[in-house]
Amino acid sequence: MNYRSVVVFGNAHRVEDPDEKLRAMQAIVEHVCPGRWDDARRPTEGELRTTLVLRVPIEQASAKIRTGPPIDFDFDLESDVWAGVIPIRSVRGEPVPDPALNGDIAVPAYCIDR
């Protein structure tokens, strides 16, 4: 099986400062959907208070990657069973509007797959 794996070691700490929490939340939103933060409303005080944000200083990390074709035993290759690689990809799909949304609101350009 091909894979990508990362393990990060560090002690997590709660982010208590509201401004730091907002910056962290903005970074996550902008990573997933660039442009969304400026378009959406900010979290309410209650939402900010009940959302846990953790800071993890990275003390150690390791990464492993495995690529390429299978490494089969000779006796496996002599069988009548298919072997190979089935690629799996994560891609953004077509935006699906909230059914309760006002129908006059267009899908923002940043939501459309590029």
What would a concise description of this structure say?
The chain is an alpha+beta fold and 114 residues long. It is built from four helices and four strands.
Question: What keywords describe this structure?
Answer:
alpha+beta, Pnp Oxidase, Chain A, two-stranded antiparallel sheet, two-stranded antiparallel ribbon
Task: Tell me what portion of residues adopts beta-strand conformation.
Answer: 15-25%
Strand segment count: 4
- Write down the domain tally: 1
Overall spatial form? flat
Question: How many alpha or pi helices?
Answer: 4
Summed over residues and divided by their number, the pLDDT gives a mean of 92
**CATH T-level fold name:** Pnp Oxidase, Chain A
CATH domain class name: Mainly Beta
Kindly report the name of the CATH homologous superfamily: Electron Transport, Fmn-binding Protein, Chain A
CATH-derived architecture: Roll
Give the biggest beta sheet.
2 strands, antiparallel
The rounded Rg comes to: 22 Å
Instruction: Give the SSE order as H and E letters.
Output: EEHHHEEH
Largest sheet, order of strands side by side?
A: 1-4
Low-confidence stretches: none
Could you estimate the helical fraction of the residues in percent? Answer: 25-40%
Structural class: alpha+beta
**End-to-end gap:** 29 Å
